[in-house]
Amino acid sequence: MQLSEWATELARDRLAEPLPRRWAHVQGVAERARQAAGLFGDDGDLLVAAAVLHDVGYSPDLATTRFHPLDGARYLRSIEAPERLVNLVAHHSCAVLEAELRGLPAELAEFEDEKTPLRDALWWADMTTTPDGKQTTITDRVAEIQKRYGPEDTVSCFIRWAWPELLGAVERTEQRLADQVK
To answer: Where is the HD domain (predicted)?
Structure first.
């Protein structure tokens, strides 16, 4: 069984019933990741696995710190998932900045941020997928997040602070995809 197949089963078990909208989102993110997987050779499957598991920390039985990148990564580490997968989940979509706002930077530092094109592609997939799993632009996705959480919420503050990093990852990935077509 491929890593992405295992990841999909795990995410379905943790998210589909308790959080159907979150499950729709991760399926959409995984579909976006599949569109970019060809950029990464053998690591394309890792990208899809990270995409389908990036929000597993929202699962009610895993949400211990209430910071889903950390909760998801700790859970995956506890079941001995591959280290790169664990680290990608921990650091998806510029989580390091949200960890700062939540007072959890030391906890997130347990996990390495690989800062690679593959990581960029995971961020791209997440930031270009709506909560319902549909494709969108990063601008519309960020606006939706801010509207959903409200202007003063930690998530809205984080997303404004992370904008340059998130936009950079999206633009780099879109350029890589365009270059692949040439």
So the answer is: 22-106
Residue with tokens 């664990």: 86
Structure token pair of residue 9: 């089963």
Name the one residue in this structure whose structure tokens are 């696995």: 49
Greatest Cα-to-Cα distance within the chain, rounded to the nearest angstrom? 46
In the block, tokens 């394309």 appear at 44
pLDDT tens per residue across span 136-175: 999 999 999 999 999 999 999 999 999 999 999 999 999 9
Give the residue from 120, 165, 121 showing the smallest Cα distance to 142: 165
Contact 11, 26 (CB under 8 A): yes
Sorted by where each starts, the structural domains of the chain and their CATH numbers stand as 3-181 (1.10.3210)
Q: Which two tokens stand for residue 104?
A: 């959890």
Global pTM value = 0.97
Helix axes 154-181, 117-127, angle to 10 degrees: 120
- 98-119 pLDDT per residue, tens: 999 999 999 999 999 999 999 9
Distance CA 150, CA 158 (A): 12
**d(Cα 133, Cα 165) in Å, to the nearest integer?**
22
